[in-house]
Amino acid sequence: MSDHEDHFDSEDEAEIVNPSRGIKANPKIKILVGNFERAFIVSIKSLFVLSPIFAKHVLLGLPKRDRAILCPEMHDEVFECFCEFERLGYYITFPGPLVKNPKDRPFDAKGDAIAAVKQRIFAKRVQHVYSIKGWTLLVARPEVFRDETLQKFAKGILDRYHNELSQSPYPTALDEHVLFLHGDVYAIAAKYKIEKLRVLARKMLLRVIYEAHLTYDFVGSFSQTVEYLLWATPVGDEIRGELIRFCMLTGFIFSPHPQFLHLLDNNEEVRKAVLGGPLYYHFSASCS
Q1: Position 4 in a domain
Q2: Which tens digit of pLDDT belongs to each residue from 87-137?
Q3: 117 to 1, 125, 256, 264, 274: CA distances (angstroms)
Q4: How many Cβ atoms from other residues are within 10 Å of residue 45's Cβ?
Q5: What φ, ψ does residue 116 adopt, rounded to 5°?
Q6: What torsion do the CA atoms of 37, 42, 46, 48 make, to the nearest 10 degrees?
Q7: Which of 14, 72, 169, 239 is most solvent-facing, going by the fewest CB within 10 Å?
Q8: How far apart are CA 207 and CA 228, in angstroms?
């Protein structure tokens, strides 16, 4: 779909990608994506194969400058995922920079004593939990928690994981750096009715949430991604229920994190689900 070029190699190619001229045998356009205007050379046919709605939006709904179409509304990494999906049937993500001992990573809050206390509380609550998957398995064990409501809730999430995600063949990095990328791909694919890409992004997003190492950075990225998707998707979209279930499952151990508290403060749907959910009530009562 895209050649990722930043210039034209010939006058002929310049004429082909000019959106104001007539259509040739293999018409292409130059799209400048994101705030830094990364250039993509894209065939018009591939845009329509991906989604007629998306193609019409790009060709008719976006501003133009010189010989290029401007697309500031998308991140270039997201557009690249769209290109890879059209070409391969999936898209690839890579892990971000590694962090040493991320559970103990110090705050960047310039000596904020309250923030430091919240960091220590978070670290203590997750010291024996390595992922949301691990936390779910722990909650589902009757010898650990005898509350049948908790066990049933956790087992329901486990069943969904094993049925849909555990054998997923799609390549993705399992860290917090790709959470928002998958979320953004999902939201835009849903908006422009690219159903196969939407389904793929959903599975990759949920798998990262479920399996990624439970770090302080992860909880921050998770909270921001949830807040964005609840804003970007309509009520009734299936991803909303999935994300709220994860919030209900992890509300107690995530609650010391400032970004998660921000999510609770600013989204009534999440706040009601978490504070009224079985796990938060159980653990708050046991700690009081």
Answers
A1: no
A2: 888 888 875 544 333 344 444 444 466 666 666 776 666 666 788 988 888
A3: 50, 12, 9, 19, 22
A4: 13
A5: -65, -40
A6: 60
A7: 169
A8: 18
Please give the Cα distance from 4 to 42 (Å, whole number): 9
Q: How far apart are CA 112 and CA 129, in angstroms?
A: 26
70 CA to centre of own chain: 24
| Dihedral pair phi/psi, residue 239, rounded to 5° | -65, -30
76 and 205 in a single domain? The answer is no
- Domain assignment of residue 250, given as a range: 102-287
Q: Which of 63, 88, 113 is the last residue of a domain?
A: 88
Residue 93 counted as domain residue: no
Q: Is 2 within a domain?
A: no
pLDDT in tens, 228-243: 999 999 988 999 999 9
The whole model's pTM is what? 0.80
Read off the tokens for 127: 């010291």
Hey, what are 133's tokens?
A: 């998957």
CA contacts within 13 A on the Cβ side of 246: 25
